[in-house]
Amino acid sequence: MPPAPPSGGAPAYLNGLNLEQSDAVLSTDGPVLVLAGAGTGKTRVLTTRLAHILATGRARPWEVLAVTFTNKAAREMRERATHIIGPGAEGLRWLGTFHAIAANILRRHAELVGLRSTYTILDTDDQERLLKQVLEAANVDTKRFTPRSLATLVDHWKNRGWTPQKLPASEDFANGRARDLFSAYQERLKALNACDFGDLLLHNLTIFTGHDDVLGEYQRRFRYMLVDEYQDTNVAQYLWLRLLAGGTSANICCVGDDDQSIYGWRGAEVDNILRFERDFPGARVIRLERNYRSTSHILGAASGLIAANRARLGKTLWTEAEGGEKVQVRGVWDGEAEARLIAEEIEQARRAGLRYADMAVLVRASFQMRAFEERFVLTAVPYAVVGGPRFFERAEIRDAHAYLRLIQSDDDDLAFERIVNVPKRGVGDTSVQRILSLARHQGVSAMAAVRELLTSDELQARTRTALSAFVRDIDRWRAGLDSSSLSALTETVLEESGYTDMQRADKATGPARLDNLKELVQSMQAFDSLQSYLEHVSLVMELDRGAGEDAVQVMTLHAAKGLEFPLVFLPGWEEGVFPSQRSIDEKGEKGLEEERRLAYVGVTRARRFARISFAANRQVYGRWTSQLPSRFVDELPPAHIETRSDTGYYDGAAPGFAMPASRWEDSRFGGGYSSPGWQRAQRFSRQQPAIEARATAVSRPAPQASQPWAIGERVFHQKFGYGAIVSIDANKLIVAFDKAGEKKVIDTFVEKAG
DNA sequence: AGTCTTACTATTTTT
DNA sequence: TAGTAAGACT
């Protein structure tokens, strides 16, 4: 603990905060909603508030729950809190992302939902493979009903807090099989001792609502709660927070900005923030409206734009930074001309003293990036694409992880399937199916099934040799876990398995993949156990890689949230592109409002200069299309913009797009959830035990009762044909086959003849 | 088991 | 247009 502030004087960490900011920091008790507009010092308020709670002894570090959405935000909060109050902040065990904290809680109470504390967290790729198996097992046409679409749907359900039992009848997939498929998937997860991202929160809800004692323990522990980006919370997260808050007088502080809610498609419910005062009657609402980032023209343009939205709490941003350049709006002939123009302006800005890293190109969708990349390469403008394909989602990284997961545990069937024949060892599809079928019949893991099959004649000799070597390798590497470092072990595994050789043989993509693997091995040096490493990668899907170069940042508008740049380019403001046609088609007026918030986020990223542009023609997926300027261009207040059109494609007034005022019915949560939320959560809690009772600790389906075999009995085998039983040893039979001779087989593969 | 060919699809993606 | 994924073919 740092020394108490000198009596009478305000603590140093309050210096430089404006009135509203310090109000938000000092109103520690009771529910508080901080509406923090773009650039108003939100992070500073949040971290200072956290530091203040600790510094004044209101709570000890482990008694504060502080949740964020991203690992980056969590890291930043921890660093800044440590900066203010020193090492005392290190005890902040409950500062992290929703998922990381929920995963911790689930580890402690896994058995209450039928999991073991060693459960694994599946990523979206594993999730889709598993769903594919579920769909195939249920004879669903996976062409018409893709695993991916079901994955999206399941995610959506879980985001709403729905278990299969709670799934509303209105939800459908594959002609009325939604619930069955959902249930089957959950059963498979349990059998694998695994859960997906959505489950982390959902299992928490099941535990909290079914076990008052557990919930009570956490409610007492968390004396203060801080929630970042509240506008992005989904229903499950909302319920989770409500349960932990324990009542309407909790010391909960939610910080957010309804105007920056851009993840509705991910399940975020702007309504959560809009109804905070109803959820917590008597809550303090503090608005941070003084902007420290942008010039008044930029703020004016952004404010005018967002004013067209209906569903908002309303804030008026202001700044003392008067003047500056007006937001420039330009029309060009086509996408190529747009890229050329922006590349030129980048060089101009650089001659005027800006660094490349001070500039960003923010696009709606990644297909827009190509034009810029091509132009930047041509004109030697250094650039960096932020986001893009994620490191941990690359095939080679996932392969390496699959090896490690299998070394960690024989039970990881998904890992087994992924790498049993990578690199090729001559274990074909048929053999793999045979293994999995045996595993399922006996209720054991695939590895166990392999071990068993090796003692029989079921597999071809060549396959058997290959699998036997594979099993021996895995066992040997596992034995090496204790004696060598994780990164050394991984190198050994990649080398000895033949994986690196396989990549070396691939002249096209091999080198890049080998680089990635090297990087992976590098990043492992920070970990001392395989367990902790695997846990880390499943929750923190990121790798800090050397940024720092002076380069123009190219990214999507979504990726830009929370960032700021002196000069921001906003290309592609055309109807259909931005706002995205699909967004409007799918979500109507709500979708449009979210697009508008995205535009608002984009404009407010700029500190000094914002340059909006649109093209009359654009090549989309190889097809030329004519574009109209975005309705958002019309909505920009003329006083804050300056339109320039060297080509005459823009005459200052784009065709009007009079949108009828929204009359979209607010059918928020599929019925029930809407009012009042707290009572709903309580009711939800009463119903849970029924589900809980079913979640017994069965981790694999019960083995099938073994058939009563008799010596001399005639049997039929898929591969060896007819024969008679010679001897019986538990589930292994020696059968004298009419054609194939005497073979040792496993009873699940034979049936009684005749 | 590996290679070639064809068909399909294509926003945003905090964990 | 391009990139992938599944199926057919050898």
Can you offer a commentary on this structure?
The chain has 754 residues and is of the alpha/beta class. It contains 28 helices and 21 strands. The strands form four sheets. Strands 9, 10, 11, 12, 13, 14, 15 and 16 form an eight-stranded mixed β-sheet that branches. A six-stranded parallel β-sheet has the order 3-2-6-7-1-8, with helices on both faces. A five-stranded antiparallel β-sheet has the order 20-19-18-17-21, with no helix packed on it. A hairpin with a 2-residue loop joins strand 18 (721-729) and strand 19. Helix 5 (124-137) packs across helix 6 (147-159) and helix 18 packs across helix 19 (446-453). The protein binds a DNA duplex (15 and 10 nucleotides) through helix 3, helix 4, helix 8, helix 25 and helix 26.
Notable features of this structure?
single chain, 754 residues, alpha/beta, 8-stranded mixed beta sheet, 6-stranded parallel beta sheet, 28 helices, globular, disordered N terminus, DNA-binding
Task: Briefly say what this structure is.
Helices cover 43% and strands 14% of the residues. With 754 residues, the chain is an alpha/beta fold. The model is unreliable at 1-6 and 648-703 (pLDDT under 50).
SS element count, helices:
28
Q: Give the overall silhouette.
A: globular
How would a textbook summarize the main sheet?
Answer: 8 strands, mixed
Low-pLDDT stretches: 1-6, 648-703
User: Roughly how much helix do the residues carry, as a percent range?
Assistant: 40-55%
Count of strand segments: 21
